[in-house]
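Q: Convert this sequence to structure tokens.
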Amino acid sequence: MKKMMVLPGFDGFYESTNAAIIDSAIESMAECLAEEEGIELDNAVDRIYDNTDFTALHTQFARDYVDSVNDEIQSAAGVMDMLEFESLQSPREYNFTTDRIFVNIDEKYIERIAQECSRAVFSDTLKSLFTSYDGFISSYSPDILDYLDDNDAINWRDMDHNTLSALFEAWAADRLDLDNNSIIEDYDCNGEISNMLSYN
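A:
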């Protein structure tokens, strides 16, 4: 059986490094197109934007991002393909949130994560993510005691996609770097973004 969770660390596509990498690839392609066809750079940029399916591009970017996180997990924990891309969710407006990647994870890995996770780190993560403050009312308890079962073990079976994400983030804290910019550091030089763009 598998459960779904939000992949922590992903910065989305609004005013982020991810967006900057895509914009840089568009600019490079536009410069080549303008030179090849003798057109203005602005026209070349417009042509690429008009002919590129950005929903498909963002989804493929998110899939590749999950693959990169899996590589980090394999190096740190010896587990291949722990996470399976499920979907990319984008908000109607970027006022209060950004794009989120949802992944599926097998329950056998969740159980391992729950057993290996530091209680102190998990407690700190819950407080950081779920403590209410001015302008934010949390729907989740920041108290670790609310996530323990009768045997004082982490009750991962009752977790939803957000609380499971918190558990994963806490487990990963001293094992791998989930920082968005670290995950994508090679994206702008491997040509994959350019391959997803089109001006035809």
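The chain is about 50% helix and 10% strand.
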